[in-house]
Amino acid sequence: MSFFNLRACNLMQQYIAHEHPYHQLILATSGVTELQIEGRGERITRERGCLIPSTYHHEYIGDGANRTLVLDIPLVNLAMTSCADEVGRLFERPRFFEVPTSLYQLASGLLPQVEQHSALHTEIATLILRAIYLNLHDEALTLAPPQPREHARLDLERLDGYIDAHLATVIVVEDLAAQCALSPGHFHACFRELTGMTPLAYVQQRRLARARELVESSAQPMGHIASLVGFRDQGSFSRAYRRAFGVTPSLHRRGLHL
């Protein structure tokens, strides 16, 4: 019996926003995923991992080329594991953390076992969790403040134009960085320093602003509006809209005509 849900996957170029009733660990062995928790985000790479406690809202989009270990830890099973205390401390709050070389090598080496031997998932998950707990001290687990960066090359007007012209499609940080002739990592840091939010959050903000305009000024079906601003389905659109504006798009439109 496995107490954990451990899997190796490829996080696709698809925007996902949700929360769930279990803890989650995310480690990448290659590629990049933009991820934010309750509005604060970083890039998940082989050098940066993430711990997401249960019920915390988070949003992410992968680059389509990553290899990622995702570990779900159901709270109902936690007390039955041999590392319950360590897990409880690790997931006291949302954390982005530096992945030391030893942990990266461990995760990379175990990836084939994860894919081929489901019976070993509890042992592999326990090993990874204990490695994180033992190798990372409290300072390494805290969310580090962004370092001041030069952001003179960020042209927000140009970026806004690009985003608004591509709202119906997937927009990744590489696309935005290319508009400023910056590397994705440098762009991400500069953008957060300049705007106070991640590129993912900024794009989402503009998607929803355009959606609100369409809800208020048109009679288009909500499913069509969702697709026009880049949401994969009406349900995820409605949830994101309600979080942003305190009301679902359908109720918003209905209230305008009462």
TrEMBL record:
<feature type="domain" description="HTH araC/xylS-type">
    <location>
        <begin position="157"/>
        <end position="255"/>
    </location>
</feature>
<dbReference type="Pfam" id="PF02311">
    <property type="entry name" value="AraC_binding"/>
</dbReference>
<dbReference type="GO" id="GO:0043565">
    <property type="term" value="F:sequence-specific DNA binding"/>
</dbReference>
<dbReference type="Pfam" id="PF12833">
    <property type="entry name" value="HTH_18"/>
</dbReference>
<dbReference type="InterPro" id="IPR009057">
    <property type="entry name" value="Homeodomain-like_sf"/>
</dbReference>
<dbReference type="InterPro" id="IPR050204">
    <property type="entry name" value="AraC_XylS_family_regulators"/>
</dbReference>
<dbReference type="InterPro" id="IPR003313">
    <property type="entry name" value="AraC-bd"/>
</dbReference>
<keyword id="KW-0805">Transcription regulation</keyword>
<keyword id="KW-0010">Activator</keyword>
<dbReference type="InterPro" id="IPR037923">
    <property type="entry name" value="HTH-like"/>
</dbReference>
<keyword id="KW-0238">DNA-binding</keyword>
<keyword id="KW-0804">Transcription</keyword>
<dbReference type="GO" id="GO:0003700">
    <property type="term" value="F:DNA-binding transcription factor activity"/>
</dbReference>
<dbReference type="InterPro" id="IPR018060">
    <property type="entry name" value="HTH_AraC"/>
</dbReference>
<dbReference type="InterPro" id="IPR020449">
    <property type="entry name" value="Tscrpt_reg_AraC-type_HTH"/>
</dbReference>
<protein>
    <submittedName>
        <fullName>AraC-type DNA-binding protein</fullName>
    </submittedName>
</protein>
